[in-house]
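Might I ask for a little of your time on a matter of protein folding? Here, with my thanks, is the record as I have it:
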Amino acid sequence: MPEQKVYFHVDLDAFFASVEQRDHPEYRGKPLIIGVVAPRSVVSTCSYEARMFGVHSAMPTTQAYRLCPQGIYIPGDMHLYSRVSKQVMAILREYAPEMHQVSIDEASLDMTGTRRLFGPARQLAMKMKQRVKDEIGITMSVGIATSPFIAKMASDYNKPDGLCLVSPGKEQTFIDVIGLKKLWGLGKSGLAALESRHILTPQQVREYDLESLQRMLGNSFGQYLYLACRGQDPGLMFQKSKTHSISTETTFYEDIKDEQTLCQVLLGMSSELMARSFDEGMMARTVGLKLRWGEDFRTITVQDTPEDPILNADQIYNAGRKLLLSKWKSGQGIRLIGLGLYQLYAGDTPIQDSLFSEADHRKRNLDKVVHNLGAKGLKLRKASELSLAETADARSVKHHQRKGEQDSAADVGKPVHPAEKPESDH
């Protein structure tokens, strides 16, 4: 009889904001938003205090400011976050026979067969959580289940600093408890499609067979709902790469339909991937993009291997944007976007027998300088990391940072909008 599968899903709580609050006591207990208030900037993540006002990731920072003008707005430091992420992942790898890092702040761990080594799953998860809290100074939430999909949702069940174990055989019951609104991957457009057909609960979804759901909602969306509402893994979490890769992805609370927001998210992802590649001492030959449409759940992955070596974050961004525009049309709602580096090799010198431009080489050196200074605790920002706009709204950035640092927790007041919990912490 095969051994029961055991998966942990680890999610670092409001990761970027938590690192900043760890290092800056004056930010603690206050609404902290990672993102500058500028015309084309988006929120990378925010503290739980900011979420009380309805602020969430991928929201335009101008909208976030309307919801939470008393918040503290900072550009953040991807190189610092990459370094802290590497420290956390190193702890997790001490326990996990197999681990997939989903993004800078999430990982899926296959813990099957580790009970004899480390004890019961809940006990081990508590030990891992405590080590990260003691050694790194931040909290994480852990979901435990028989599949990566259920473990992912369990990690979000009791955040922050949560721990949720879904026992074997209880997967469908767990889905019924969390309901359709918290079903991972199902956004507002999907919920609206179901509500228009008077389908409001997982139990009502199960009244339909697979063919009926696919006929109503399309093949991909129908199959996803059929499996997910029965507590089965629909296979959306990730696809294992045959070779080592560095990737990240984010699921939006609301489908994103405009190019500027998608490109701003890609820009942040490019900086993240470059920082992580420096930390791992790797270079890449290929850039890959993953897209999931909100309306029909269609998911695609596309890759491009440029002739020139991939030396810097700008090249990653340009390749990702090119792939995006080749597959996406303005107005189409995107539910999930991911970016990755593939065909990695160790070292700091391109192995392709081709010449690269002096400008690309200078940009790589600049990325390295920023990264190395970040490792020493110094912050230096590239203008392109702040916003795609050529000119940022410097007035609001300077004013809101100073104002936020002066506000006390008592000054925050009552939220002006109800919180809508985001799907992703970055």
Observations:
- The first strand starts at residue 7 and ends at 12.
